Amino acid sequence: MFYIYSMIIVDGSKKSGSGTILRYAVAIGALLQQQVKVFNVRAQRNNPGLRPQHLAAIRAVAELTDGSIEGGEVGSSEFVFTPGKKVNGGSYTWDIGTAGSTTMLVMTVLPAALIIRDKLQCRITGGLFQDFAPSFFHMQQVLGPILWKMGVTMRVNMIRPGYVPAGNGILEIEIDPVRKPLQPLTLTDQGDIESVEGTAISSHLQDREVSKRMAEVCRKVLSKKGYKVNLREEYENSALQPGAMLAVFARTSTGCILGADRAGAPGRRSEAIGRFVAHSLIEDIESGATVDRYLADQIILYAALANGITEFQIPFMTGHVETNLWLVEDLLGSKVEVENNFIRVTGIGFKPQ
């Protein structure tokens, strides 16, 4: 059987020129049931073209929609994604095959899951903690609760940590069908900080007290600003290699959640991680933002799909925020307004079928 699609054509070298462009394009194509062609894939990156984690994400959406990919190979500078006529629920298992980000794969699949007919359960193998990608903790503690306010029920669990370069971490996600249009968010007032909590986790590093060292410095820096901090120190040995992660989250009286985190890396001292995470959180809080620097770009697509106007204050403008605002205007026709880091997105009222 053949279907006729209008085609979305996206230049992957525009704005940030990053993998964000292809992820958004494929997700929107699945939602709108439109064919998508992306060229100049990641053209502004040092290693342009599709990387294994990007290819795994596109293939996952193709499987989820009974769709297909043309030109989908590691290193490809362009590809065409053709979605099927529905998005299937059920159980899926995907293995990135490297330490590529499992959370980035989820970020690609999740928008398409807004039109699933039955509950979706996914088990994804790859990296859970690395630079330049959302951490498992941020997805679980920040993105998940914020999307729940909009009408998306998502549960995320870590089965095994995964670090660069070995990967082989395991993340499980469960998403319920969405039966009505997403609700817009009104996050205009940061409010008072009511709690700061988080997790310092390390694998095969208990003898060096890595979790304790990260947490102690982070607590000290945040305490000087008057915050009472509850940080759990965890050690585990199921990961395939040594690694570490520190994540903290501030919750406010108006329902805002701001997070900061950082993964360990060779030569990166535990104390430096603690200071970096604490200062990042402090910077975002003191900016008056109602979303952190990571959530700022993550919620734009959902705001563009919502039935109404979403408003939020970001800490500062980033390339990812600019890119995502451009994409929802260009591909969805959503109206976007930005003034002094205050963002207003008028959603299109997308209705799940």
Q: How much helix is in the residues?
A: 25-40%
**Major beta sheet, strand line-up:** 1-2-4-3
Q: Strand portion, in percent?
A: 25-35%
CATH fold-level name of the largest domain: Dihydrodipicolinate Reductase, domain 2
Largest sheet: 4 strands, mixed
Mean pLDDT: 94
Number of strands: 16
The CATH superfamily of the largest domain is identified as RNA 3'-terminal phosphate cyclase, insert domain
pLDDT below 50 for ≥5 consecutive residues: which ranges? none
Tell me what the structure shows.
This protein has 353 residues and is an alpha/beta fold. It folds into 3 domains: 1-86, Translation Initiation Factor IF3; 88-179, RNA 3'-terminal phosphate cyclase domain (UDP-n-acetylglucosamine1-carboxyvinyl-transferase, Chain, Alpha-beta prism); 189-286, Dihydrodipicolinate Reductase, domain 2 (2-Layer Sandwich). The protein contains 9 helices and 16 strands. The protein has helices at 19-32, 52-64, 102-112, 136-150, 210-224, 270-286, 295-298, 300-305, 319-332, and strands spanning 7-11, 35-39, 68-70, 79-82, 90-95, 120-126, 154-160, 169-175, 186-187, 193-203, 229-236, 243-252, 257-263, 309-313, 335-339, 342-346. A 4-stranded mixed beta sheet has the order 1-2-4-3, covered by helices on one side. Strand 10 (193-203), helix 5 and strand 11 form a beta-alpha-beta unit. The radius of gyration is 20 Å and the shape is globular. The mean pLDDT is 94.
